């Protein structure tokens, strides 16, 4: 099997952040263990924690989950997560390992899951005496079941400074009991196997801290340089006997088979191939079954169980472009168009989010991804399977475009005022909503022409008309809002642009470039670029400076304001544009920035990067960020081969 490599990146203390930019690489807050098509999210954390929770169909973050943590030393204290040693694998398989050097002995944990839909985690805890003297080593095993956000000690989506607080666990009421090398709370179960250990259950000890109660104290004597290990199975339901090494071998063979489905190998450098394999495993882990359902959801990542089609299309498309992962991606499109698409009523054809929310860009995004998928598959039979659903989506989008005739002050030929994303407000968000929809129209026209369909001309004309309407709006805005060699493009039609711009990501106008409304070789593009560069965008290759931080999300104080960059989503637009006009240095800097600042040393991507706090890592791992970065890598090396 592939050997582990110690991650040698040195981090500063997790207890401080800087008011100045330090530009350190992001910290890996958690790693996925669960297999593809699991109905559980199982994660391994740097505080020696393993957590398991069900995949349920909700965006309510009050999930109930269960987990256990390893404490160290006679005082049974939490492992300081910023002092742990991370190990990586070149093959990217989720057989993860961490270690911690405590006094004169090292504690390590190796973790993985079996390949079942109701997957279990398996963990080997090793204790090694590093001294020349005989010692007694002590660890603790504490388990709790309750609100997931309390188990993590942080906000579920990670919009905070990372800190896993063991005190939270003490205040979760414990129903865990121990008997004969097994622990259970009646729902979850932990089975322990190991020789040479003294095991003692600690119940309610007078004078002890809350998190020192209801736990297992495990101690052993170790001769100089001696090592002992215990194996742990953590599952929901009864745990039967298990063989750690056999199960690890089965896990390895499964992932080896999945990695062999990569058809286009990014082996331009050893590092890119390692990144590709790590990203592939993590993206496959995003495919999940909700409990009791026969369809899958392509999760966006982090701890959330939800999916958003307009985000998912990015990593689904990447998988389709470089590997034989159609059995995964097709299941996702079946969900979008069989489960999430409205089949009757006023909004017949619209593709909703999993929670029933209607984002104006979702339908165009889902069509964009599906058409890419069908062109990759080159199957007329498959095209005919999805054709009715695509046409339903097309007809709904056409109806929405023409409905602006009923809005006296609205721009015509684009979508009416609607909510574009999870950011609040209903506007004609033409940069984001119509930009994404226009890309869907273009791929739809390409697809119908590809299969010589009778409605190809109609759809191509609709695309051209949509583009004409968008460029008409652009030209009108250019006459008013170009000044001082800058073009401030508002995303809210009917509202004068403001500076700073409104919204989570100030430069949503760049989406017009990806949609080809603004062409990279035009004066408008140069003026748009000037606007952002003159406001501090482009530092170290990043182009997504967030203009209002996370105040609107409920933080009374935002210590990351002015330091937070939304990576990949805006960056891929700039990357494609610069590459297309031969500005290779800019494109390469933007690509490199994804790998340096959005990706941790352990190959985990986050949604946002704070240049003053490496422990601010929201939505890690992030599916769409991996997909966009993979597409940038493929496009860049394709460009290099053509030169």
Structure characterization notes:
α4 packs antiparallel against α15 (623-642) and α13 runs parallel beside α15 (623-642). The protein has 15 helices and 23 strands. The protein has helices at residues 148-152, 166-170, 244-259, 270-284, 309-322, 326-339, 362-377, 380-402, 430-450, 456-481, 511-514, 523-533, 569-580, 584-598, 623-642; strands at 5-6, 31-32, 40-45, 49-54, 64-72, 77-78, 85-88, 96-102, 105-113, 121-129, 135-147, 177-178, 182-184, 188-193, 198-202, 215-222, 227-236, 287-288, 297-298, 482-483, 486-487, 564-566, 608-610. The chain has a nine-stranded antiparallel beta sheet. The radius of gyration is 26 Å and the shape is globular. The chain is of the alpha+beta class and 643 residues long. The two termini are 38 Å apart. Helices cover 34% and strands 18% of the residues.
A few lines on this structure:
With 643 residues, the chain is an alpha+beta fold. It has helices at 148-152, 166-170, 244-259, 270-284, 309-322, 326-339, 362-377, 380-402, 430-450, 456-481, 511-514, 523-533, 569-580, 584-598, 623-642; strands spanning 5-6, 31-32, 40-45, 49-54, 64-72, 77-78, 85-88, 96-102, 105-113, 121-129, 135-147, 177-178, 182-184, 188-193, 198-202, 215-222, 227-236, 287-288, 297-298, 482-483, 486-487, 564-566, 608-610.
């Amino acid at each position: 099997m592939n050997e582990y490599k110690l991650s040698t990146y040195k981090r500063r203390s997790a207890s401080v952040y800087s008011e100045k930019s330090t530009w350190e690489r992001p910290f890996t807050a958690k790693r996925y263990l669960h297999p593809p098509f699991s109905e559980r999210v199982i994660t391994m954390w740097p505080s020696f924690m393993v957590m398991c929770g069900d995949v349920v169909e909700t965006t309510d973050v009050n999930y109930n989950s269960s987990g256990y943590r390893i404490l160290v030393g006679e005082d049974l204290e939490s492992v300081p997560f910023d002092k742990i040693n991370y190990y990586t694998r070149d093959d990217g398989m989720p057989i993860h390992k961490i270690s911690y050097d405590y006094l004169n002995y090292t504690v390590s944990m190796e973790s993985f899951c079996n390949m079942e839909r109701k997957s279990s985690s398996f963990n080997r805890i090793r204790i090694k005496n590093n001294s020349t003297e005989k010692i007694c080593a002590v660890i603790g095993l504490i388990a709790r079941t309750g609100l997931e956000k309390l188990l993590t000690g942080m906000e579920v989506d990670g919009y905070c400074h990372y800190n896993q607080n063991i005190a939270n666990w003490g205040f979760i009421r414990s129903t865990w009991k121990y008997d004969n090398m097994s622990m259970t709370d009646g729902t979850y179960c932990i089975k322990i196997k190991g020789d040479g250990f003294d095991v003692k259950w600690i119940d309610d000890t007078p004078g002890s801290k809350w998190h020192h109660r209801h736990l297992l104290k495990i101690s052993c004597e170790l001769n100089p340089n001696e090592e002992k290990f215990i194996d742990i199975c953590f599952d929901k339901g009864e745990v039967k006997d298990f063989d750690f090494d056999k199960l690890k071998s089965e896990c390895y063979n499964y992932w080896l088979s999945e990695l062999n489905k990569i058809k286009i190998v990014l082996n331009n450098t050893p590092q890119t191939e390692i990144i590709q394999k790590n990203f592939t495993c993590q993206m496959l882990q995003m495919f999940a079954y909700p409990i009791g359902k026969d369809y899958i959801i392509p999760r966006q990542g982090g701890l959330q169980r939800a999916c958003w089609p307009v985000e998912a299309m990015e990593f689904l498309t990447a998988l389709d472009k470089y590997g034989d992962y159609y059995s995964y991606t097709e299941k996702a499109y079946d969900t979008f168009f069989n489960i999430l698409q409205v089949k009757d009523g006023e909004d017949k054809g619209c593709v909703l989010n999993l929670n029933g929310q209607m984002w104006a860009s979702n339908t165009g995004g889902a069509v964009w991804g599906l058409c890419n998928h069908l062109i990759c598959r080159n199957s007329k039979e498959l095209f005919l399977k999805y054709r009715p659903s695509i046409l339903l989506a097309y007809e709904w989008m056409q109806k929405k475009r023409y409905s602006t005739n009923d809005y006296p002050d609205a721009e015509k030929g684009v979508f009416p005022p609607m909510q574009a994303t999870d950011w609040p407000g209903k506007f004609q968000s033409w940069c984001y909503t119509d930009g994404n929809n226009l890309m869907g129209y273009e791929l739809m026209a390409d697809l119908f022409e590809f299969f010589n369909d009778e409605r190809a001309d109609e759809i191509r004309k609709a695309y051209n008309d949509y583009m004409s309407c968008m460029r008409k709006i652009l030209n009108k805005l250019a006459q008013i809002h170009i000044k001082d060699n800058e073009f401030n493009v508002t995303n809210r039609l009917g509202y004068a642009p403001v500076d700073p711009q409104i919204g989570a990501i100030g430069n949503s106008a760049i989406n017009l470039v990806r949609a080809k409304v603004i062409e990279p070789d035009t004066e408008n593009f140069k003026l748009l670029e000037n606007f952002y560069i003159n406001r501090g965008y482009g530092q170290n290759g990043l182009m997504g400076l967030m203009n209002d931080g996370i105040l609107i999300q409920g933080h009374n104080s935002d210590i990351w304001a002015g330091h937070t960059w939304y990576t990949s989503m805006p960056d891929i637009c700039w990357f494609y544009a610069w590459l297309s006009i031969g500005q290779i240095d800019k494109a390469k800097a933007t690509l490199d920035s994804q790998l340096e600042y959005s990706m941790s040393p352990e190959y985990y991507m986050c949604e946002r990067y704070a240049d003053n706090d490496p422990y601010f890592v929201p939505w890690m791992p992030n599916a769409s960020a991996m997909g966009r970065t993979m597409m940038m890598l493929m496009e860049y090396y394709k460009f290099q081969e053509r030169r």
